[in-house]
Amino acid sequence: MELKRPQTQTQVAILSFTCFSLFILTVGLDDQVQAVLPPPTTKASGGERYVQMRAGAAFKIAVFADLHFGENAWSDWGPDQDVNSVEVMNTVLDNETPTDFVVYLGDVITANNFLIANASLYWDQAISPTKSRNIPWASVFGNHDDAPFVWPMEWFSAPGIPPLICPAVNSTYSGEEACSFRGTQRIELMKHDIEHDLLSYSSNGPKDLWPSISNYVIQVSSSGFLKKKKKKVDPKSPVVYLYFLDSGGGSYPGVISNAQAEWFQKKSEEINPNSSVPELIFWHIPSQAYKNVAPQFGNGIDQPCVGLINKEPVASQEAELGIMDLLVKRPSVKAVFVGHNHGLDWCCPYEKLWLCYARHTGYGGYGDWPKGARIIEITQQPFSIKSWIRMEDGVVHSRVTLSP
Fold it and tell me: Which residues form the signal peptide (predicted)?
């Protein structure tokens, strides 16, 4: 989505990379950061990584969407928004304790709004509330995560040429690297997330789908004991599969390709051949199917849809290339979760599944609607998938059951 750029009359100044790095590494962390522990063995029998439910407890996922870290780094406005976004995540995680898993649902950063060579500094700040609590997470890319840098209009001189104001004072980067403005690509961000954080369950996906990077599966596994049945079960037995798909945007068109749809079909039939295990799907830009079920823009949200804000039309992918046809044919698929539209937070039924928005979590990006996060709760016995929105002020609304 297009971003609202605050107007400023102040002299444009670029902070040094050294000072900025210190800011990123310190803002938003708890006063006493717990030691980050490595996750347990995380390979299921089919080779997919898994996270395990706690015995006798539901499995709770917090979904953070459209954080947009790194906007307007040349002014006070941008860093202030990032601090506020960290506070939203801190509040949600404090109110939803314990949270078992976090999904970063795209547009974690606004890469086209900053010129630094290392976007991972912003990425790390966005991850910090989750990491400091030792909560594992997974990420999927949005259309702003690897967009090329866009020159601010304030930088253009009278002849129409941006003045060369980099490298910044005390920069640790060479002039050529700091001024390249090529952006940080998806694969570089994913490599950083995977290699530097033991609690990250993100994956760079099959190489034959690149540059579509974040395509992978995570298995939510049984706790290993069913209390009501008083029997042990295989702790690696699946309760739910979480599928992540890169919906593009930024460095290439905003679509889920035929190749991705074919990958999903092959993978789902391989690990869940009888559709006996429920499946949840996560990507960033809504499919065109969202337009078919959307409540009439501006007229509130009526049943069977559930939500609170309906402030803009659906901004969908550029084309529908087969993924929705596959999803509606699989009885195991219970819901799809997207972000991208900051002014929508509804869930609506579509065929035999649900199409859901998250809630705009970050103070970055367009729109001034109150911030929050979608929560997903999975119960094994009896099985159910429920969801609600937790707001920054602690209020809970829009409870919906996505599966009996």
Answer: none
